[in-house]
Amino acid sequence: MIGIDGSGNAIAAWVAANGAIDTASLPAGGTWTAVTTVAARGQALNLAVNSTGAAIITWGTRSATVADSGTVLGGFATPATVGFAPSYPIGHTHVALNASGQAALVWTTGVANLAATRSAAGTWSTQTQLSANPDGPVDVAIDGAGDAIAVFEQLQAAGSSYTAAAYTSKRPAGGTWAPPAPLSVPGDATVDSRAVADTAGTFVVAWQDRTTQTLNVLTSPPGGEFGPAATFPGVLGNLKIAPGHAVLTFAACCNAPMMASSEQVN
After folding, report:
1. Helices first, then strands: H and E counts in the chain
2. Per-residue pLDDT averaged across 167-175, rounded?
3. CB 32 within 8 A of CB 48
4. How many domains does the chain have?
5. How far is CA 182 from CA 19, 132, 146, 155, 170, in A?
6. 132: enclosing H helix or E strand
7. What Å distances lie between residue 26 and 30, 68, 78, CA to CA?
8. pTM for the complete prediction?
């Protein structure tokens, strides 16, 4: 994972061959620092960096989900245990951080999708269950005011079998996570849900219907609700946002070349 702050300083975090969580930093115009080990062992790595140079690394152990707060160039404090462990050995944690230092973290344990938030002062909340019956990774985004959104898949009955549907849960700044609300329509078999937010409060979410190989992208303006989905045939690549614009990368199908679509969101 790589993050860069508003001054051009960068940090990389990775899981080493021995299972350790390692980092190194690159000052703007400088050279890479020596490698620093922040944990002897971990998996399900994720990283968030904001414009002021604050950074959060998250990972999972066999017994807990862990978050470590610090700065791009200044190192990290003692890791904090946030909640139950993510799925092992291949789990997922996703963390988002705004310019004020507020953060939101989501992960799945294999039996539930969970979330926690961090205040600007650096205190993590108690974990909250977003939903049961998880299927696949989760994602999270936070805007400049501290409003957050999580997107995830839940298994649901479809006749004699089960399929995954995309859901979202919103949390206003200082509030609590709302009950899951469906994003996809009945019959979709969703995978790879993504979420991004800009400072002004625009949220964009995307997910893939693996039955039809169709991408669905919804945009919510500041203070508003999600509008109709834009759809693209293809396989989801990535979703990014900057003030006023969002960019989606995707492949037309399977092993086809990657393409991109951009949208003005203000």
Report:
1. 0, 24
2. 95
3. no
4. 1
5. 37, 14, 22, 12, 12
6. strand 128-132
7. 6, 19, 22
8. 0.91
